[in-house]
Design brief:
Elements: E1 4-8, H1 14-21, E2 30-34, H2 35-41, H3 43-51, E3 56-62, H4 66-77, E4 83-87, H5 92-102, E5 111-115, H6 123-130, H7 136-149, E6 154-156, H8 159-169, E7 174-177, H9 196-202, E8 206-209, H10 211-214, H11 219-230
Parallel strand pairs: 1-2, 1-8, 2-3, 3-4, 4-5, 5-6, 6-7, 7-8
Helix pairs in contact: 4-5, 7-8, 8-9, 9-11
This protein binds cytidine-5'-monophosphate.
Cytidine-5'-monophosphate (C5P) is lined by residues 8, 10, 34, 59, 115, 118-119, 156, 178-179, 188, 190, 208-212.
Length: 232
C-alpha cells in the first residue's frame, strides 16, 4: 500500500460523519474509524463508509486474552476493512492469535498494525503510571520487534520513532503515525507530535490526522495541505 494521509473520523454520530465526508467532492480520503464512532453506530457505519468508496482503518485497539482477541478479529475480518489494530502490550501470543483470527479462509486479511505506546504517553507517565522504567524509545522498539515476530504488518507509533522502527524492523514494516499537526495548530492531549512534512522526512508510511483536519475551518483545504506536505 502506498503512503497516504488517513483522516481520523472522531465523531459521535453518523450524521456528523456524513456531513463531514460530503465536503469531499473530488477525493475519497482514507479514513480511520475509532472507538467513538464504532461504539456509537456499530458495524453498519463501517459498511456504509466502505460503500462510499473509502479505504478504512478500523482503530479499535484490541487488548484481551489471546482467545478473545482471535475470535473478535474473526468477526472484524468480515467487515472487509483495509487495516485494523491491537495493543502490542497484549504480548506476542495475543498478536499471533489475532492474526490467525483475522485471516480469512482464502488467506486474505486486512493489514494488522500494533499500537506500541500511545502518542499521548510520555516518559514520565510511562514510568509513573505503568512502572516501565526504560527509555520510551527502547520500549517502542521492543514492542515493534514483538509485532514483527508475531507476523504483523507494522506499528502505530509517533512519527518521531518511524525511522528507528524501520531501522529495527525493516523498510517494509509499516509505520502508521498519529500525533501529526499542521504548523500552528493546538497540540491538545498529544505529547509526541510533528508536522506532515516532518513525518515524511522521518519515514512515516501513513499519517493519521484528526483535529488538524476535522477541526479546521476548511477541512478539505487542510486535508489537501496534509497530502501536499506528506506525499508531495
Ligand atoms: O486529533 P488527533 O490528530 O490527535 O487524532 C489522532 C487520532 O489517532 C485519534 O483518533 C487517536 O485515537 C488515534 N491514535 C493516537 N495514538 C495512537 C493510536 C491512535 O492518537 N497511538
Amino acid at each position: 500500500m502506498n503512503k497516504d494521509v488517513i483522516i481520523a473520523l472522531d465523531f459521535d454520530s453518523k450524521e456528523k460523519v456524513f456531513e463531514f465526508l460530503d465536503l469531499f467532492k473530488d477525493e475519497k480520503p482514507f479514513v480511520k474509524i475509532g472507538m467513538e464512532l464504532y461504539y456509537a453506530e456499530g458495524p453498519e457505519i463501517v459498511k456504509e463508509i466502505k460503500k462510499r468508496g473509502h479505504k478504512i482503518f478500523l482503530d479499535l485497539k484490541l487488548h484481551d486474552i489471546p482467545n478473545t482477541v482471535k475470535k473478535s478479529m474473526k468477526v472484524l475480518s468480515n467487515l472487509d476493512v483495509d487495516m485494523t489494530n491491537l495493543h502490542a502490550g497484549g504480548t506476542v501470543k495475543m498478536m499471533q492469535a489475532a492474526l490467525e483470527g483475522l485471516t480469512r479462509e482464502d488467506g486474505t486479511r486486512p493489514l494488522l498494525i500494533a499500537v506500541t505506546q500511545l502518542t499521548s504517553t510520555d516518559q514520565e507517565s510511562m514510568e509513573n503510571d505503568l512502572l516501565i522504567r526504560r527509555p520510551i524509545d527502547e520500549v517502542v522498539m521492543h514492542y515493534a520487534k514483538n509485532a514483527k515476530i508475531a507476523g504483523l504488518d507494522g506499528v502505530v507509533c509517533s512519527p518521531l520513532e518511524a525511522g528507528k522502527v524501520h531501522g529495527v524492523c525493516g523498510e517494509k514494516f509499516l509505520t502508521v503515525t498519529p500525533g501529526v499537526r499542521l504548523a500552528g495548530d493546538a497540540v491538545g492531549d498529544q505529547k509526541r507530535v510533528t508536522t506532515p512534512e516532518n513525518a515524511k522526512e522521518l519515514g512515516s508510511d501513513f499519517i493519521v490526522v484528526g483535529r488538524s483536519i476535522t477541526g479546521a475551518k476548511d477541512p478539505v483545504s487542510a486535508y489537501r495541505l496534509c497530502v501536499k506536505q506528506f506525499i508531495g
